[in-house]
Amino acid sequence: MKKQFTAIIRKSRLEYVAICLELNLSARGEDLAAVEKNLKNAIELYLEDIKEHPETLTSSISTEDFIEFLKDTEPEWYQGPAEGLLLRPLEVHEVPSYA
Which pTM value belongs to this model? Predict the structure, then answer.
């Protein structure tokens, strides 16, 4: 059975940013396909490095780092209709898991 990892991908102002929660790795790209490919490559390289250096300690992302990631990639607020209703944009994509 292959190990699966959880990735969260968000769009910041200029690019897409992804993090792997279990390994505390990140990647970025111009679009969803690019950021997904870049994160997958980062995970593969990291896992190869761990095989070569088994003494390497891995840790999942800390709550503080995760909150910082969410703040840094927070979409711009959309000012809604004239009544002043504030809407927050939300983009949902299938969360890939990498083996």
Answer: 0.71
